[in-house]
Amino acid sequence: MSRQHFIDTLDAYAVNGRTVQLWLRDDDAIKPTAALSRLLEQSKRWNAPMTIAAIPADATTELARLLIELPLISVAVHGWDHTNHAPASEKKQELGLHRGEDVVLARLAEGLERVAGLFGDRAVPLLVPPWNRIAPALVDRLPSLGYEALSVFGPERDGGPLRLVNTHVDIIDWKGTRGGHPMDSLYAEAAARLGSGNAQSTSLGVLTHHLVHDDAAWDFLDDFFALTADHPACQWVPVSALMHKR
């Protein structure tokens, strides 16, 4: 029923002349893999732009050669090396203040420079914090490093120093199977996101991690792309369109 509710929600959007701007962010890429190739093939098949959040310290030239030829793919900065610096008593965090603000900012500046150098015009000045966590004090400093937007998980909040372009549906069940969530629960989350606002255009960000996808994860993506590709209320957009949305 949740899948049908999502379809009904999209249909209502279409009747009212509203649009859902869809985007997908896939985290943790460092090199070409069979799973990444499968995800990129979905992008090509459905003509759906995707954003690959690459780990700058470990990203390879082989990954750059793969992505540089794919105009539908953009590459964001996934922290520096995806290393946890928080103590065991806290949630994992690379971009906290545990090492001092200046150290973290230096790594983020280096990360942006390396992604731009490796991926050329596929690179976008978008920071994706590992584990979707970043100390608020650091956010205020990001524009001075050249970042134009930040992407974490959850509803966007206005009033920050730079644009938030968040994801809203995480397809992986991190606290349970560590594979894909059941399809109906994912469609329920997507429908809830679309029902939460009244703007003419609403964004819906899907978060994936290709390295841990199981059959449930791939099945959902296949179904989601097929459902949204030709729906009159749906528009798959590059993340740059959301970064500069007025």
What does it look like?
It comes from Rhizobium wenxiniae. InterPro entries: CE4_u4-like, Glyco_hydro/deAcase_b/a-brl. This is Peptidoglycan/xylan/chitin deacetylase (PgdA/CDA1 family). The protein is an alpha/beta fold and 246 residues long. It has a single domain (2-243), classed as TIM Barrel, CATH 3.20.20. Helix content is 37%, strand content 17%. The protein has helices at residues 2-15, 34-46, 61-67, 101-119, 136-139, 142-145, 183-194, 215-228, 239-243; strands at residues 19-29, 50-54, 73-77, 123-127, 149-150, 163-164, 169-170, 201-208, 234-236. Strands 1, 2, 3, 4, 5, 6, 7, 8 and 9 form a nine-stranded parallel beta sheet that branches. α2 (34-46) links the parallel β1 and β2 (50-54). α1 packs parallel to α7 (183-194). The longest helix is centred in the middle third of the chain and has 19 residues, at 101-119. The protein is globular. The two termini are 35 Å apart. The relative contact order is 0.21. The mean pLDDT is 95.
